[in-house]
Design a protein that fits this description.
- The chain folds into 2 domains: 178 residues, 3-Layer(aba) Sandwich (Rossmann fold), CATH 3.40.50; 177 residues, Glycogen Phosphorylase B (Rossmann fold).
- The protein has 14 helices and 13 strands.
- The two termini are 15 Å apart.
- It has a 7-stranded parallel β-sheet with strand order 3-2-1-4-5-6-7, sandwiched between helices. It has a 6-stranded parallel β-sheet with strand order 10-9-8-11-12-13, with helices on both faces.
- Helix 1 packs across helix 14, helix 2 packs parallel to helix 3 and helix 7 packs across helix 12.
- The chain is an alpha/beta fold.
Length: 379
């Protein structure tokens, strides 16, 4: 089967780009033929940089490039403003072009909020009606869409979880990063933006550091482009003003995969006090590396933590302090949560499992025979 992807893709700095790489790498193991149409800056085998973020000809260019490869099915990775036009609206004529050509089209909606702005709602409704299938990562997202549009979407919207790697932690990660190896490391990692609520993690550490001499804090991340510079600077000031700043380690900049894996491996507890989120790639990485997580009670976090038994969810700073203290003081609980997380990945959301679920969906929309003897695919 030949599958065309439309998405951002590495080395572009984007969670959707990373997601697409992991998914397509696993799909290739299933003897699929993958072509990826992406933004300028993407690179790789069968990756074709074709458009920019604000390209007014996005739909025409992308469609024209994709049909050259005669895909059996096309899969769009959607995020608002990832493509051109107001809020990324030009993804709609692109979808319609494929429908008119009778090429099945699937759209993965990575962001579904219950409190959806009017502009997002208009685009989401068009995607729902125009795509053959829509993928979301959580059951609550499917229910949210049904409530927002007052229709039964059980046949249109398919729930496929966010994948995670089945991988071992990096050995001697603390030593490699020149961190004190005998300390318990708290970590928050990701883009510096207000919704990620890094200031709460710093507050948690400041409250606990005087009673726990054996803890350190790692803050790792960057802003994307020039957005949220004021928020980043405020975080740096909070770190500088901390009475325990000598135990806070700041890692700035875009991290390579190896560096990201090393930082995550060096942590003992990950804190993700998000104010709002639809799903979290960082949480998937935490599960992959078996890291206990303390996070907010947003729907996606609650569902994943409950299913994986890999951490605690909190509503208030008091809860964060209580749950973090429990993990700091009880190594056995940390070990149990780590084991639960790794087992959850292996049994339910490894990328190989997620790729098979995608392939089953693709096959349900096409009449392409799924098995041929002696297929030869040339570059």
């Amino acid at each position: 089967m030949r599958i065309g992807f439309i998405s951002s893709y590495p080395p572009i700095e984007c969670g959707i780009a990373t997601y697409t790489k992991y998914l397509t790498d696993s799909l290739k193991k299933l003897h699929t033929d993958i072509y990826i149409i992406s933004h300028y800056g993407a690179s790789g085998k069968n990756v074709f940089p074709t458009f920019d973020y604000n390209d007014p000809d996005f739909a025409t260019k992308t469609y024209s490039m994709m049909v050259r490869f005669t895909p059996d099915i096309v899969h769009i990775q959607h995020e608002f403003a990832l493509y051109s036009g107001q809020f990324g609206i030009n993804v709609i004529p692109l979808i319609l072009n494929f429908r008119l050509s009778e090429i099945p089209i699937i759209t993965t909606m990575h962001t579904v909020y219950s409190d959806m702005p009017k502009e997002h709602k208009i685009i989401t409704e068009a995607i729902l009606y125009s795509s053959d299938k829509v993928i979301v990562h959580e059951k609550y997202q499917q229910k949210t869409l049904e409530q927002l549009f007052n229709i039964d979407l059980t046949k249109k919207v398919v729930v496929i979880p966010h994948g995670a790697r089945d991988i071992n932690t990096v050995a001697n990660a603390k030593k490699e990063l020149q961190l004190p190896e005998n300390k318990i490391a708290l970590l928050q990692i990701g883009y510096f933006r207000p919704s990620k609520n890094f200031e709460t993690t710093i507050e948690i550490f400041n409250n606990l550091a005087s009673k726990n001499k054996n803890i350190i804090l790692i803050i790792a991340g960057k802003i994307r482009g020039i957005e949220h510079k004021n928020y980043r600077d405020r975080l740096f000031n909070l770190i500088e003003q901390s009475p325990f700043k000598d135990r806070i380690y700041l890692i700035r900049g875009q991290l390579s995969q190896k560096a990201f894996d090393t930082v995550l491996s060096a942590s003992d507890i990950v804190i993700l006090p998000y104010k709002i989120n639809s799903q979290s790639g960082i949480l998937a990485h935490c599960l992959a590396f078996g890291k206990p997580v303390i996070t907010s009670k947003t729907p996606s976090m609650v569902q994943t933590i409950e299913k994986s038994k890999s951490g605690f969810t909190c509503n208030s700073i008091e809860e964060y302090l209580e749950k973090t203290s429990i993990l700091i003081s009880n190594e056995q609980i940390r070990r149990d949560m780590a084991k639960n997380a790794k087992q959850y990945v292996k049994n339910y959301i490894s990328w190989d499992i997620i790729a098979k679920l995608h392939l089953e969906l693709y096959e349900s929309l096409t009449s392409i025979p799924t098995h041929h003897p002696h297929i030869i695919t040339l570059d």
